[in-house]
Write a structure and sequence with these properties.
Blueprint (H helix, E strand, L loop, with lengths): L1 H32 L12 E5 L16 H15 L3 E5 L19 H8 L3 E4 L4 H9 L6 E4 L6 H5 L2 H8 L4 E4 L10 H5 L8 E3 L1 H14 L6 E5 L8 H7 L5 E4 L4 H7 L3 E2 L9 H13 L3 E3 L3 E5 L8 E5 L2 E2 L4 E5 L1 H13 L2 E5 L12 H15 L3 E4 L3 H8 L8 E2 L4 H7 L5 H7 L1
Parallel strand pairs: 1-2, 1-5, 2-4, 3-4, 5-6, 7-8, 7-15, 8-10, 9-13, 15-16, 16-17
Antiparallel strand pairs: 11-12, 11-14
Helix pairs in contact: 10-11, 12-13
Length: about 425
Amino acid sequence: MRIAFLKELLKACSFIFEKLFLHSQKSIFLTSQMKTLDNYNFQGKKVLVRVDFNVPLNDSFLITDYTRIDAAIPTIKLIIAGGGLPILLSHLGRPKGAYEEKFSLRHLIEGLSKRLNLPVKFGADCIGEKAENAILDLKQGEVLLLENLRFYKEETDGDIGFAKKLALLGDTYVNDAFGTAHRAHASTAIIAQFFPNDKLFGRVIEQELNAVEKALSSDQRPITAIMGGAKVSDKILLIEQILDKVDNLLIGGGMAYTFFKALGGQIGDSLVELDKVNLAQTILNLAAEKNVNVQLPVDSIAAKGFSNTAERAIVDNMEILDGFMGLDIGPKATAEFVAIIKRSKVLIWNGPMGVFEMSNFEKGTKGVAAAVAEATKNGAFSLIGGGDSAAAINTFGFNNQVSYISTGGGALLEYMEGKVLPGIKAIQD
């Protein structure tokens, strides 16, 4: 009886160990098949790198913000260190499918070269003979930037023929343009199919996805989302998505006045989306059901006109007089927001608290930025959304005092909303 029991026990153990072994082997196999920058051999490869160099230029065509360029540098340098030849693809602005001098990527060469501390060559076209000749002249340790992709309307059309012409220029494709990952353009989503075994994510996209995952899946509490900007409609899906994940939702910027309208407040001439008033009330009700603390700004700095020099007053957000519009959260609101932020362990910030570009309406956004930086210093994880939020952090000098600043505005929003991004899916397929 005892011997029979031991045999059955050994048989069961053998079955379990076999399953565990097969599972571990499967995991090892899957890991070995997952190509990243770290385990890919770039030696001698012509590497097409889709970067997001859609950067601001002044009237002299000089770069005024290097955030997106700086973000791409680790990927470019890693490819060079691995023996590859980086061939950079990007867009700039919104040209109408033809050459426009002000949108030429030629303007970025000097600044990019200084930032990389490497020689950067320029290809006067992104496909065809000019591009091919520029690649033939490229030497190890050099970088090539090809001309603006959007000088061809086929880029934004997602034209497969145009994507194939781009693909013929390289041996490997790396997508590092998170800011355009939500667009099904030729160079972000269509091109990847021509590199079934040689398509990778660059460092920017890896870091973006990791940062969102860390923020939304954290077991650290409390988690606080700070939402601002002009319109509720821009953030509705994101708010609905994160209500299951956050403890606090701070709402500022122009979008706040739609909520006050929903609460029966008098908002004067403040920005409001009348067709979203009912939805704002629904969001407040939903948050209450989920025990999420929604903090609206109790006061505002309002002005008689959209101007830095207009007459100003600090007003209660339920009682803004006609003729005044709220352009920044007020001192009481800022203090309440700051207190919640400093207690938080995870912070997700998307959208400014007011018109921070005007000095008289920057205090709210600046106060929030300083609080996020202080919370980060004390151990919180802070994810700053792209666009205006990133601009605000940079403007006020806190860019090195937060955990991660996204390079993608719309892409980050859509990814956090749970949408499938064509540029991400193309690499994962």
